[in-house]
Amino acid sequence: MADTGGVEKKPKEVVDLELIGRKDEQTDGRTVASRDSVRQKIADDIEAFLSKGGRIDEIAPDVTADPPKKPENNYGSRAI
Fold first, then answer.
1. Quick one: residue 79, left, alpha or beta (phi over 0 = left, psi -120 to 50 = alpha)?
2. CA dihedral defined by 47, 49, 55, 59, rounded to 10 degrees?
3. pLDDT (tens digit, 9 = 90+) per residue, 22-69?
4. 62's torsion region: left (phi>0), alpha (psi -120 to 50) or beta?
5. What is the CA radius of gyration of the chain?
6. Which DSSP string do the residues of 31-77 spell out, in sequence order?
7. 39: alpha, beta or left? (left if phi > 0; alpha if psi -120 to 50)
């Protein structure tokens, strides 16, 4: 068995990312430790993605996916 320098490793907590942001999530479940575990899970996922050759592109804040729409003229379109 490998020597960990006297530091016990805690088993990884399983994080259910599906529950985050849901309205029916209990506020009692939102603790500093639970939020830290979510942040660590995301950081681990990003690290794994990048180590497999993934790339993260930064998009400028003024770029949108939807082009501006032409205004519609609905005046008088209702039946008499």
1. beta
2. -80
3. 666 565 667 888 888 889 999 999 999 999 999 999 999 888 888 888
4. alpha
5. 24
6. -HHHHHHHHHHHHHHHHHHHHTT---PPPPTT--SSPPPPPP--TT-
7. alpha
CA terminus-to-terminus distance, the chain:
85
Give the CA distances from residue 11 to residues 14, 24, 31, 37, in Å, rounded to whole numbers and listed in that order: 9, 27, 18, 12
Residue corresponding to tokens 């790339």: 55
Q: Which residues contact 37 (CB under 8 A, 6 or more apart)?
A: 13, 15
